[in-house]
Amino acid sequence: MRKRYLRGDQVYLRALEPEDLDFIYEVENEPDHWAMTDFTVPYSRFSIRQYLRDNRNDLFADKQLRLVIALKGKDTPIGIADLFNYQPLHAHAEVGILVRQEYRGMGYAGEALGLLCDYAFGFLALHQLVAYVLVDNHDSRELFCANEFVSRGTLREWWRMDGEFKDVVVYQRLRDWDKTKDRSRAIWL
């Protein structure tokens, strides 16, 4: 039997649709998220509309795959799951996940991240995924550890936020990671 990707018990991951314009506009223009990206100015509705129109949603063509995290049975968009900075030669990509504030703490992010990893490894045949997480973002650090990502080190003063530089933890998950060999590294460093 074939594995069914992108569908969980509570959420599913789907492609972006033109109807997601307002949702994407809201998410992309939240200043709290800018520090973890290279955004320096707000996005206009026009530029997001163009992105939605032109986006092929193909990791291999675009080097990025952006999926909406939606509540199962309602199609309510509650977040975004991204694969980006895809490196085809090395079969790896970076992971980003964002769940709107009002939907946090309900297990949606963990399920969405698990679905994204299953898809990346099982269907897209990636070898590894990497995530960069602020040292003081304990919820995200727990999220990645719970999804078999391993802390590989801290980058000192990596992101600038509110006029000061912040440390970032690098998390990595290999497709064939053997938990028994690397169990000691699954804790926070």
From TrEMBL:
Highest rank taxon of the organism: Bacteria
InterPro entries registered for this protein in UniProt: Acyl_CoA_acyltransferase, GNAT_dom, N-acetyltransferase
Keywords: Acyltransferase, Transferase
GO molecular function, one term: acyltransferase activity, transferring groups other than amino-acyl groups
Domain N-acetyltransferase span(s) in chain numbering: 11-175
Family according to the record: Belongs to the acetyltransferase family. RimJ subfamily.
Protein name: GNAT family N-acetyltransferase
Organism: Candidatus Bacteroides pullicola
